[in-house]
Amino acid sequence: MTLLVSKSKFLAGLQCPRLLWTYYNNRDLIPEPGPAQQFIFDTGHLVGDLAKQRYPDGTEIKRDRPDGRPDIPATVAETTRLLPLRKPLFEASFQADGRYVRADILVPAEGNTWDLIEVKSSTAVKTINLWDVAYQYDCLNRCGLELRRLYLLHLDNTYVKDGPIDPHALFHRQDVTQEVLELVSLVPPLFDRHRTIIEEGDPQTPIGPHCRSPYPCPLKPVCWADLPPHHVTELYYAGKKAFRWLDDGWKTIDKVPTDKLSPMQTVQQNAVVSGREHFDADAVRRWLSGLRYPLWHLDFETMNPAVPLFDGTRPYQRIPFQFSLHMQAAPGAEPRHLEYLAEDPVDPRPQLLEKLRVIGPEGTVLAYNKSFELGVLAELGEDFPAFGPMCDDIRARMKDLANPFQHFDAYHPDQHGKYSLKAVLPAWTSLGYDNLDIRDGQSATRAFMQAVFPETLGLSPESVSQTHKAKILADLRSYCCLDTLAMVELLKVISARVRSR
User: Cβ–Cβ contacts within 10 Å for residue 223, how many?
Assistant: First the structure.
């Protein structure tokens, strides 16, 4: 059987030789896509379907096997049959010299030529996208297809929905012919290198920045499994230096010479060596002195659909659909919990804003990594001017509970160089997210869209039962509630530490 290299595998080889080799020789090591990755796939399918609407006389070439994978001989044969008809083609398939690609959109151009259009759900062109098109060009050219222009069709983030989605205005078509042609000559030697990698033994590629870029590598859990506890890549803001330190033999944080470290990295190293938390009581006390009661612990959950759902919104605009609020009337007082969660497939923002009026005119509004909440409130105030003064007032009174942890005034070795709520909460308290069915913001977004806007994931409303929807909404309430309860508990912990010093 001829070994075929698809464009996705070619791009995998550009990122990491070991990833490419594993796809062909030890595929079981690569996990199935998780919810976050599936969300990206669902978005891509939705955007791709809208892009096809720009060419109403187009034909989709769909010849799949029972397992859902493409029947390559059938799709190639169907493409060959349809090309002479000179109509737009979707998912046209080509195979040549070990290469296999499916082109998103082919549009007939002048004479016998064609325009190749690659569709992306992003809002800008990335370098990896150019390599994607270059590989397609190389394959299609070998099949005898003459390409006139090469385009990347991506979402236009200036598009504002007004009525039904306009598939012409939604996208920006960018001519990348020149940039791609500058890469095309590099494709054959890279392809030959890829084939050699696949046919030889596991290349055992060392870990490095490529494990995270241009995409999170699915092999990362495998390749990083042997790193010791508190390895140097966990050092705060170490970046690429951490991989150089690994090469130098400094595998763990305690081995790095102190003169190589920043002040915050030094705090982290001392905590790892001693096994004890670091706590700068004076710095934390100064931060606590800026709080005014009552305290309003606030957290938003948002969705940012690639294709805008509501009039007046843009691609990927943040749309808050939920908030949790724990109010404390005085230091140490038992908190009162208030919340809002949208349940119906309409714009959730007007009702959310009405419910947000519960925040009184006095006291500090506390958030964790407040830049997110500040941004959400600013956008809400801009889009709903009647609520602008309220949003401005909340923003003006907001302080950031992440501050003491972000600056490592309070640092626990179990944070592993991070200061996110997910890292800090279990390090400093007995609470954590592990027993929840929804454990992070991205999962919350996807779960909400599945329950309330299933069509954005390619699902029909009937496919989500009322029982399943109720379970998702209950899980969302538990998750968002914990985000603000976590703030209450962390504030309690650091206040007690200050009092004890």
Answer: 20
**348-356 contact pairs (CB < 8 A, 24+):** 348/319, 348/320, 348/321, 348/322, 349/319, 349/320, 349/380, 349/383, 349/384, 350/384, 352/320, 352/321, 352/322, 352/323, 353/380, 353/384, 353/387, 353/390, 353/391, 355/323, 356/323, 356/387, 356/390, 356/394
- Buried-state track 394-424, b at ≥16 Cβ within 10 A, e below 16: bbebbbbbbbbbbbbbbbbbebbbebebebb
For residue 196, the one-letter residue type is T
Over residues 408-459, the pLDDT tens digits come to: 999 999 999 999 999 999 999 999 999 999 999 999 999 999 999 999 988 8
Cα separation, 450 vs 345, in Å, equals 11
Contact (CB, 8 A) for 72 and 93:
yes
Whole-prediction pTM: 0.93
Sheet strands (E) in 47-146: 59-60, 89-96, 99-108, 114-120
Residues 6+ apart with CB under 8 A from 360: 294, 296
Q: Which domains are delineated in the chain?
A: 5-199 (3.90.320), 282-500 (3.30.420)
Dist CA 499 CA 185 (whole Å) = 68
DSSP 214: S
